[in-house]
Design brief:
about 325 residues, alpha/beta, two-stranded antiparallel sheet, 15 helices, 7 strands, 5-stranded mixed sheet
Length: about 325
């Protein structure tokens, strides 16, 4: 029933988007409301799936992942249409975080460094213990007895969202999403950082760039997905990369990083989060204003900013060195 409800809200968002394109006043706002509601329903489904590990759950997971991709893509498009760049960036972060989580599992073990943050916060530890106990009860209970336990679990997780000490843990498990305000906390001692995301909407590629503590900016790139895929098929082969003119061929892709000329400075640390077909490209080998990106800037690759936070959480001192 929940999947059907999410699909219904998604389809209503599509109808309102079409009405917006036809010029109906207020239609875009309704479309955004519907797509946000669809995402919330899918988030509840995702949380419920952590309670089961059987064949039926795996089938539902495949359906969930497919539906989330469509919902996120439409969410980004509608946010762009409304001129809400920050919201579009938020949709991208949530989508990439969920994709990273799906590569692991719905309920991977909590990292010890993240758990340590709760040891000195009584309320955080209490809620975490309560959640673990409710999950255990739900897994052991027969299907007809699970509803009241799931209701208690939903209340518990809602309370967990209000406890700051649990933020990194919730983020690592896909229970929370990265916000603009949290970026500053990621790099407490570094100011010269630019986080870069690429997102694909149909055949169009967009780049987001944001400095911690600032608002994200977005740019529509000159190259489309079809052109990039054609370049990969024609050039990204071992026999071609050994040829003397191999580096010259990469100049055809330089526009994938061109916006960084305005949005970053030489020496800035660039945290690159490519998407789709771009994930297999050596973006650091592209040029900005005639200079290789890797020569202009130190570069870090990550699948999602969420995974970068988790990887660095075990050594916060790194950012103070």
């Amino acid at each position: 029933m929940s999947f059907q409800l999410a699909r219904c809200r998604y389809n209503k968002a599509l109808v309102w988007e079409h009405a917006h394109r036809l010029g109906q006043s207020g239609a875009l706002g309704y479309a955004l409301q519907e797509i946000t509601a669809a995402e919330e329903i899918l988030n509840h489904i995702r949380s419920d799936m952590t309670l089961r590990r059987d064949e039926e759950m795996l089938r539902h997971k495949a359906a969930l992942v497919d539906r989330e991709v469509h919902v996120s893509t439409l969410g980004v498009s509608l946010s762009f249409a409304a001129g809400q760049i920050g919201d579009a960036w938020g949709w991208v972060q949530r989508s990439k975080a969920r994709a990273f989580l799906d590569l692991l599992s719905f309920e991977e073990p909590i990292d010890g460094s993240l758990l340590s943050a709760t040891h000195h916060n009584g309320r955080a530890q209490e809620l975490l213990d309560q959640e673990m106990e409710l999950v255990r009860q739900c897994q052991l209970a027969p299907p007809h007895d699970r509803l009241p336990i799931c209701q208690k679990l939903a209340i518990c997780r809602k309370e967990m969202s209000n406890v700051e000490a649990l933020y990194d843990m919730r983020l690592s498990r896909g229970m929370d999403s990265l916000s603009e305000g949290r970026l500053k906390a990621m790099f407490p001692a570094l100011e010269d950082v630019v986080c870069v995301d690429w997102v694909i909407i149909e055949n169009t590629i967009y780049m987001f760039a944001v400095r911690p503590g600032s608002k994200p900016v977005a740019a529509k790139l000159a190259l489309g997905v079809d052109e990039v895929m054609l370049w990969i098929q024609s050039n990204l082969k071992a026999e071609y990369l050994r040829q003397p003119r191999a580096n010259e061929r990469f100049r055809e892709l330089d526009s994938l990083v061109t916006p960084l000329l305005a949005e970053s400075s030489p020496g800035d640390l660039l945290v690159l989060c490519p998407a789709g077909v771009l994930a297999g490209l050596p973006l650091h080998a592209l040029q900005i204003d005639g200079q290789l990106l890797i020569e202009r800037n130190p570069v870090v690759y990550t699948q999602a900013l969420r995974s970068y936070i988790i990887a660095s959480s075990g050594d916060r001192g790194l950012w103070h060195s």
